[in-house]
Every structure is written in structure tokens, then in C-alpha cells.
Amino acid sequence: MTKGIVVQFRRGRKTIHEKHYLLDVGANSREEASKLKGKEVVWKSPAGKEIKGKISDAHGTKGLVRAIFEKGLPGQAITTEIEVLGVGDSGKEDKKANKEAKK
Fold first, then answer.
1. How many CA atoms lie less than 13 Å away from 17 in the CB half-sphere?
2. Contacts of 19 (CB under 8 A, 6+ apart)
3. CA nearest to 68, candidates 4, 3, 5, 10
4. pTM of structure
5. Could you tell me if residue 75 is left (phi over 0), alpha (psi between -120 and 50 degrees) or otherwise beta?
6. Is the sign of the CA dihedral 80, 84, 87, 91 positive or negative?
7. For the chain, which domains are there?
8. pLDDT digits (tens, 9 = 90+) for 19-54
């Protein structure tokens, strides 16, 4: 599980997409950000409420990603932390390594 930061709403000049957000997850290029496509994202409120979303694709060339949440996040969520599930934790690669080490 890695952490990231909510940067901004996904927006145009006159429109804001309430469920779409730009996230900084520490990727340095578009290629690194594209590898995170389809991963689950969780934002936790100070009261303990969780809102889940999914990374839809990379955004731009600097490593930001777009995420679509099930409900819109509150405005206070901007510049707060999010968690990307399935990245950097004990995933399939670690399980394979453990099985090979036991042999």
C-alpha cells in the first residue's frame, strides 16, 4: 500500500467533475503512472469514514493519475493523503517469492 496526495478536481475552464480527482502517487513519468491503472484508492476522513475509488488513467506527463470515486470527496480532501491499495504491499510477487524460499 502506497500513499499519495489529492491534488485537485478534474476540471475544465467552466466545469468541475465532482467524482474525478487528480492524485500525486509518487510516479515520475506517464509510463510509471499508467502501470497503476485499475488500482483501488481509499480516502479516509478525519471522522474515520472511507470513500473508495479507482485509478482510471495517467494525467499529463509528470506522473499524476486520474481517479474516479464512488461519491464525491469533500473540498477539504484536497492536499490530504490517500492510500493506493495493491501497490507495495504483500502482493502476488511476494507470495511467489515466499513459496520459492520455502522450497
1. 13
2. 53, 68, 69, 70, 71, 72
3. 10
4. 0.81
5. alpha
6. positive
7. 2-102 (2.40.10.190)
8. 999 999 999 999 999 999 999 999 999 999 999 999
Q: Cell numbers at residue 73, please?
A: 470527496
The confidence band for 88, taking pLDDT boundaries of 50, 70 and 90, is: confident
Concatenated DSSP letters of 25-46: -S--SHHHHHTTTT-EEEEE-T
What are φ and ψ of residue 101, in 5° steps? Answer: -70, -30
Give residue 99's pLDDT band: very low, low, confident or very high (50, 70, 90). Answer: low
Closest by CA to 68, choosing from 48, 82, 80, 88, is 82
Mean of the pLDDT values across residues 88-93? 56
Q: What is the pLDDT of residue 87?
A: 84
- CA–CA separation, 2 vs 25, rounded Å? 8
Report the C-alpha gap between 8 and 68 in whole angstroms.
12
